[in-house]
């Protein structure tokens, strides 16, 4: 599974398989399945990886993800996971 597909899968189905503490697990479905690829590309962009994302992807991330993960994806206040870390981007899945 490529990185973008991996992130889309986590967005759609949640993060329980990433072995976080129970209180850190994200449920799936914070954005629609249609919007998940847009948000996935924006997350890759935040991690300085190439992925073309539409303009609305930033707003989707801001309104659905940034509250916990911060506008930069690095985790609000260190409480929620840094989405730009290699493991969370699916780099260890290849």
Can you lay out the helices and strands and say which pair or pack?
Blueprint: H1 3-13, H2 36-46, H3 56-64, H4 66-69
Helix pairs in contact: 1-2, 2-3
Please, could you describe this protein's structure?
By secondary structure, the protein is an all-alpha fold. The protein contains 4 helices and no strands. The longest helix is centred in the N-terminal third of the chain and has 11 residues, at 3-13. Helices cover 37% and strands 0% of the residues. The chain has a single domain (3-93), classed as Cytochrome Bc1 Complex, Chain D, domain 2, CATH 1.10.760.
Annotated CATH architecture: Orthogonal Bundle
- Report the average pLDDT across residues: 85
Taken together, the total number of domains comes to 1
CATH fold label: Cytochrome Bc1 Complex, Chain D, domain 2
Text of the CATH class = Mainly Alpha
- Overall 3D geometry? globular
Stretches where pLDDT is under 50 for at least 5 consecutive residues are none
Number of strands: 0
Tally of alpha and pi helices: 4
Query: Radius of gyration, Cα only, in angstroms?
Result: 12 Å
- Helix share bin: 25-40%
Order of helices and strands: HHHH
Q: Kindly estimate the percentage of residues that lie in beta strands according to DSSP.
A: under 5%
């Amino acid at each position: 599974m490529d990185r973008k597909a991996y992130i889309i899968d986590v967005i759609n189905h949640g993060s329980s398989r990433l072995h976080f503490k129970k209180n850190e697990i994200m449920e799936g479905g914070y954005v629609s399945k249609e919007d998940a690829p847009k948000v996935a590309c924006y997350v890759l962009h935040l991690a300085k990886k190439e992925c073309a994302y539409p303009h609305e992807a930033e707003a989707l991330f801001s309104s659905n993800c940034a509250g916990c993960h911060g506008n930069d994806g690095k985790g609000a206040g260190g409480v929620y996971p840094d989405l730009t870390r290699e493991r969370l981007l699916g780099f260890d899945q290849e």
